[in-house]
Design a protein that fits this description.
Helix content: 40-55%
Protein name: Transporter substrate-binding domain-containing protein
Structural class: alpha+beta
Number of domains: 6
Oligomer: single chain
Organism: Aquipseudomonas ullengensis
Number of strands: 30
InterPro entries: HATPase_C_sf, HATPase_dom, His_kinase_dom, PAC, PAS, PAS-assoc_C, PAS-like_dom_sf, PAS_4
Strand content: 15-25%
Radius of gyration: 46 Å
Strand order of the largest sheet: 10-9-11-8-12
GO molecular function: phosphorelay sensor kinase activity; protein dimerization activity
CATH architecture of the largest domain: 2-Layer Sandwich
CATH topology of the largest domain: Heat Shock Protein 90
Largest sheet: 5 strands, mixed
CATH superfamily of the largest domain: Histidine kinase-like ATPase, C-terminal domain
Keywords: Kinase, Membrane, Signal, Transferase, Transmembrane, Transmembrane helix, Two-component regulatory system
Length: 797
């Protein structure tokens, strides 16, 4: 009851009572020292509610970004100096002049990457589709038609996104988000697109109380903290502080600043006070009633339990007697109580059925009538032996005579029993007819198995290890060993010989490694290598053995040694053929790249010269005859434009065949390709290339560049990424190129076999003597890594 009351009080407590103070961030010694050198940080914000706004009554800044930075400053133990700006260009100008150190609430763009070092996103502000408050169904952008006008602030990133992805939308540009909502309320448009931050600010005004969220556009605004590029230590510290910030604090910030708040009944202090008093009274009344009912129930349960226990004890005793008698009478083991004079005192129903006698027919009969070989002299000898040890038992096999004169094979067990003043031998008879039949069948099966193993075209063996650490010995080797290696089975099973003596000297180390590992782990064993026959011939053998645990840590390995010489010869020939095909493919690729380079030069030089002459002749005609006929001048101007287009087409064709930037080195080519990809796709592309790179052959440079082109094409077509990172570095004598994106990722195992692009990149890298690795998971982006050996250690710029 007290626990329920405490839970109710916790539910009624205000949120600020439950909020814990911000814990200090765990920083390294170097990071603490850096903060000690910079105890005061200059923060710049753009005045835009609800992220940052100036409250004149309190003479201070407030907002989501301000509260977040105050929390981070408290956890880092630094002071903040605030600088406000009217727009983003003014903030960036202050950064260039060195007047601010960091700024919250920024969005990462290609242009901004050259000014800021951005943190990981700390808040996702979705863009919402709003309409008048009617109906409950969600609206999909794909379902909107030309008659459904949508208001959106232009110019803006969300407007560009909608124009590029939803061609069916009838967009109406507005100068601000407020005007977009006013157009919605004036019924000039049916819907409006606005981000959650501005919607939470505007919906607090009574003018916009009728609007409601009807859908999500799907392009969230990722808010980050930007820091000076010349202070990378500050970027690392801010990232660490954001990661250690409890998610509950960010949720409270988002709910406080990015949610529309309307006053309700729950905000009244009197309401909660009265509700608390009412709940407390109800809880006290319920507790009193519960105590009274519990006392009455306890008294009744105690009396009922005592009666049930008495009845249960009586029933258990009676049931135990019945079960004991039933178990003895219906046991599958025959039980006889025999006096010292060899006469039966008691026989259970099992022995009577086993020997074919009627109920009670065996009582007072001598034991010799049941077991003819058990005469009086032998019986007395058994009596004395069993009576001397008393607690032990004597076991032996025998045959009992049935009532019909047939013999029944049994296992006999004798135990001494002293009951009251009498002494007995208890004789247990177990029918072993089935066991002997199974034993005979097992012996026959083993003989058959040895016959089959002797005719298997290989060597069948069994290894046994009785205990961990004990020597491993051969328990069986088939007769096929002489046909496979020329040695008889007995010689191979010798302790100083074994299969290890047949292994080729060059393969013994690997043989012992695999065998020792299998024995140590008690697991399956597999090895493939060369063996030598008795006449010195070399053969390829495949050993496969399965481990079985027989209990008490006893392990056996059943295996076969197969002759795979023919298959190995075919495998080696196939490997050589594949190597030749790969060399041929590399040669053809080299020839193709050389032909591309030659065609690119001819297209650039020959066609360029012809187009230059043609443009010069056209200009001369325009100067000589353009004034004679106005129509002729227009045609000549049109011809000049066509010649200019041909010039650009020739450059594009030559660049596609072989980019001239390759002549400046692979590093410059990669930076050029990254800038070109960023310009074409508007996806931020961060390129990290060292200033000093080792010398690289033209074939490897072209191959590495083609792999980069194919990878960026895949990112553009399939990844749906927000950022791409290209990194080139030298590691352990190898040139490493990695392309990473934060897109949707894919199952590399399922796509690899169906993608000719991935297969082509892998084959191209293999032809260069390198390796390619793809790491990707659905929803977690993709990283493609290429490693190529460096030809020499000399470095060039």
């Amino acid at each position: 009851m007290i626990r329920v009351f405490c839970c109710c009080l916790l539910l009624l407590a205000p949120a600020w009572l439950l909020a814990a103070p911000t814990a200090p961030v765990a920083l390294s010694t170097e990071q603490r020292a850096w903060l000690g050198e910079h105890p005061r940080l200059r923060v710049g914000v753009v005045l835009q509610a609800p992220h940052a706004q100036y409250v004149r009554r309190q003479q201070q800044l407030s907002g989501l970004s301000v509260e977040l930075m105050d929390t981070l400053a408290q956890s880092l133990a630094v002071e903040l100096s605030w600088h406000s700006f009217t727009d983003q260009p003014a903030l960036e100008a202050a950064l260039r002049e060195g007047r601010i150190d960091l700024a919250p609430g920024l969005t990462q763009t290609p242009a901004a990457l050259r000014l800021w070092l951005f943190s990981d996103p700390y808040l996702r502000v979705p863009h919402l589709l709003v309409g008048e408050r009617q109906g409950t169904g969600a609206v999909e952008l794909e379902q909107l038609g030309a008659g459904d006008a949508v208001a959106v602030r232009m110019p803006s990133a969300i407007a560009d996104y909608l124009q590029g992805n939803y061609f069916n939308l009838n967009l109406r540009g507005q100068a601000s988000d407020r005007q977009a909502l006013q157009a919605l309320l004036a019924q000039d448009v049916r819907y409006a697109v606005i981000d959650q931050a501005q919607l939470s600010r505007l919906t607090q005004e009574s003018e916009f109380a009728r609007v409601a969220v009807v859908g999500d556009v799907g392009l969230p605004q990722l808010l980050r903290i930007g820091t000076r590029r010349d202070w990378p230590q500050l970027a690392v510290i801010i990232d660490r502080a954001l990661h250690e910030l409890p998610p509950q604090q960010l949720e409270r910030l988002q709910q406080r600043w990015l949610s529309a708040r309307t006053p309700g009944l729950g905000q009244s202090a009197g309401f909660w006070r009265n509700l608390s008093v009412l709940l407390a009274a109800l809880l006290l009344l319920s507790g009193a009633l519960l105590v009274v009912l519990r006392r009455q129930r306890t008294r009744l349960e105690r009396g009922l339990l005592e009666a049930r226990q008495a009845l249960a004890l009586r029933e258990v005793a009676e049931e135990a007697l019945r079960l004991a008698q039933f178990s003895i009478d219906h046991s599958t083991v025959g039980i006889l109580w025999v006096n010292w004079d060899s006469r039966v005192r008691y026989a259970n129903r099992a022995v009577e059925q086993m020997l074919g006698h009627a109920a009670g027919a065996l009582v007072d009969r001598p034991l010799q009538e049941i077991e003819p070989g058990l005469g009086m002299d032998r019986w007395l000898g058994l009596w004395r032996r069993v009576r001397a040890q008393e607690e032990g038992a004597l076991n032996f096999e025998s045959s009992c005579l049935r009532a019909d004169g047939s013999l029944l094979p049994v296992d006999v067990s004798l135990s001494f029993l002293r009951f009251r003043e009498a002494e007995y031998l208890v004789v247990y008879l177990t029918d072993v007819t089935e066991r002997r039949r199974v034993r005979a069948a097992l012996e026959e099966s083993e003989a058959r198995l040895k016959g089959i193993a002797g005719n298997v075209p290989g060597l069948v063996f069994r290894l046994e290890r009785p205990l961990p650490g004990a020597p491993v010995d051969f328990a069986y080797i088939s007769e096929g060993s002489e046909q496979l290696v020329g040695y008889p089975a007995a010689q191979i099973m010798a302790a100083d010989f074994g299969i290890r003596s047949l292994v080729h000297p060059d393969d013994r180390a690997r043989y012992h490694a695999t065998q020792d590992a299998a024995i140590e782990a008690a697991s399956d064993w597999q090895w493939q290598g060369r063996i030598l026959t008795r006449d010195g011939r070399e053969r390829w053998a495949d050993i496969k053995a399965s481990a079985r645990h027989l209990g008490d840590e006893h392990v056996v390995w059943d295996g076969v040694v197969w002759d795979i010489s023919d298959n190995k010869a075919i495998e080696l020939a196939l490997g050589e053929s594949r190597a030749q095909l790969r060399e041929l493919s590399a040669h053809l690729e080299s020839v193709r790249e050389e032909e591309k380079a030659r065609i690119a030069r001819e297209v650039h030089d020959e066609l360029g010269q012809v187009l230059t002459v043609l443009k010069l002749e056209t200009s001369m005609c325009e100067l000589a005859f353009g004034n004679l006929d106005p129509g002729l001048g227009e045609r000549l101007e049109s011809m000049k434009k066509l010649i200019a287009n041909l010039f650009q087409l020739v450059r594009d064709v030559a660049t596609a065949l072989r980019p001239p930037i390759l002549d400046a080195g692979i590093g410059s080519a990669i930076e050029w390709q990254g800038r070109r990809f960023e310009a074409r796709t508007q996806i931020p592309c961060l390129v990290l290339v060292p200033e000093q790179l080792p010398a690289l052959s033209d074939a490897k440079a072209i191959g590495l560049f083609r792999v980069l082109q194919e990878a960026l094409t895949n990112v553009m077509r399939h990844a749906q990424a927000h950022t791409v990172e290209i990194r080139l570095e030298v590691d352990a004598g190898q040139l490493c190129l990695s392309i990473s994106d934060d897109g949707q990722g894919f199952d590399a195992g399922a796509v690899r076999a169906q993608s000719f692009g991935l297969v082509g990149m892998r084959e191209r890298v293999l032809m260069l003597g390198g390796s390619l690795q793809i790491d990707s998971q659905a929803g977690e982006g993709t990283t493609l890594s290429v490693r190529i050996a460096v030809e020499q250690e000399e470095h060039v710029s």
